[in-house]
Amino acid sequence: MKVCIIAEGCYPYVIGGVSSWIDNLIKLFPDIEFNLLTIIADRSISGKFKYEIPKNLTEIDEVYLQDVESIKRTCKNKIHLSKRELEALKSLIIGEKVDWVRVFSIFNRKNISVNNLLMSKEFLDITKEYYTLKYVNITFSDFLWTLRSIYLPLFFALKTSPKKADIYHCVSTGYAGIIGCKALSIYPDAKLLISEHGIYTREREEEIIKAKWVQNIYKTIWIDQFRKMSKGAYYFADLVTSLFEDARSLQLELGCPLSKAIITPNGIDTNLFKDIPIKDPNDPYINLGAIVRVTPIKDIKTMINAFYFAHKKMAKLKLWIMGPLDEDSEYVEECYELIRKLKAENIIFTGKINTQDYIGKMDIMLLTSISEGQPLTILEGFAAKKPSIATNVGNCYGLIYGENDPFGAAGIVVPVMNISEITNAILKLASNPKLIKQMGENGYNRLMYKYRNVYMEENYRRIYRTLGNFSHTDYTKKEFVS
User: Fold this and answer.
1) Taking the CA atoms of the chain, what radius of gyration do you get in angstroms?
2) Tell me: the pLDDT tens digits for 87-113?
3) Sheet holding 364-367, edge to edge
């Protein structure tokens, strides 16, 4: 069996989160050959891997969504689309229902280039029709170039032809999901598995709504495109997994058929945490550990503010922010500047770490993210018997308070960006060592009950075997995603 992992914006360039999950998954199945098709913005980070590549990951191919070099090499051949192909392209841009089958056939043609299609009369005519329908109050030239910029990355994804595999395992919908769908148009006997950690459509919607680089009038176009892509991925997939029930409910709401949606919780290798270094009994501090990438989505500024106010009331607190500092250097500098302005003390940035070297020395784990799926850092804390204070995002509530188990609270869940609530939670735990110990035990028991690596391995071995034993639906006989 050969499994092609299709990932967007993560493995093997970014440490933690989904990247760690992919690395773990590949290592769980040394008997399976994997190859990786990984989607990044451009060639500037090509080959800059942050992970040691497992031996059974035999090939890595990169897809660039902003491939300027490719556009420069484009030939000047004119585009010729049939009437049906033109209608399919129009359905992608304007329609509510997309004829994905014919869209894939357009991009499977060798004489189609991304640049020539975006600059073609056909694309211009569709843009004019779209403009006339909804956007006549804005400048047409701005609308045309904006539409080209919106569809440039999707067209690069559609132009991608993955190498042959038995199963295409997409670790999101979006561009990764669409490439997986297109693979089925080339290899009709293959199977498609979608595994979502966060719900891609909702995450992109939140980003677009907040984005300053997208003018308000164009935000709906971006959001509609991501919804179409996710709906298409759900339609063509043989199975769609999520990490917890609320995420599955969102998938169903966004168009995933009930018969395809299953839950596969995260799992970690508890053996890695058996003999880890522990806190020195003479350490006078109460150590709060945040194993995170220092990026805006982790909301490190709220963490710093909350810790600052807690530290003013309890001087023996110390905050350890442990994770890569190279993903968003501007945000890292903003965090440093905030610390300088507050004149905050006892805050340490370690940079990239080996989790097992530090986590046993912590007393409490801290997570202030704006968005999460099912955070591995909480589970790693549980493996070391450390309670967590975490914002109410993703599955944090279920991990900390449990889902139909008898173990009790393993920390405190707090509202997003609520400095005072986070401060109060820190002080509540830090002032009660017995509560820290009891909640740490509760988390460990919950982890052993439901979130061990062995359970994740069983789930995915069953899924891979299942997909290897049934025939794929012939979607080429269908015209539209309903």
Assistant:
1) 24
2) 999 999 998 899 999 999 999 988 888
3) 347-351, 317-322, 286-291, 364-367, 388-391, 411-414
Q: pLDDT-based confidence at 417, cuts 50/70/90?
A: very high
Tell me the whole-structure pTM to 2 decimals.
Answer: 0.91
Contacts of 224 (CB under 8 A, 6+ apart): none
3-state secondary structure the chain: CEEEEEEECCCCCCCCHHHHHHHHHHHHCCCCEEEEEEEECCHHHCCCCCCCCCCCEEEEEEEECCCHHHHHCCCCCCCCCCHHHHHHHHHHHCCCCCCHHHHHHHHHCCCCCHHHHHCCHHHHHHHHHHHHHHCCCCCHHHHHHHHHHHHHHHHHHHHCCCCCCCEEEECCCHHHHHHHHHHHHHCCCCEEEEECCCCHHHHHHHHHHHCCCCCHHHHHHHHHHHHHHHHHHHHHCCEEEECCHHHHHHHHHCCCCHHHEEECCCCECHHHHCCCCCCCCCCCCEEEEEECCCCHHHCHHHHHHHHHHHHHHCCCEEEEEECCCCCCHHHHHHHHHHHHHHCCCCEEEEECCCHHHHHHHCCEEEECCCCCCCCHHHHHHHHCCCCEEEECCCCHHHHHHCCCCCCCCCEEEECCCCHHHHHHHHHHHHCCHHHHHHHHHHHHHHHHHHCEHHHHHHHHHHHHHHHCCCCCCCHHHCCCCC
Mean pLDDT of 198-211: 91
**Per-residue pLDDT for 310 more than 90?**
yes
pLDDT range class, residue 436, cuts 50, 70, 90? very high
pLDDT band at 152 (very low <50, low <70, confident <90, very high): very high
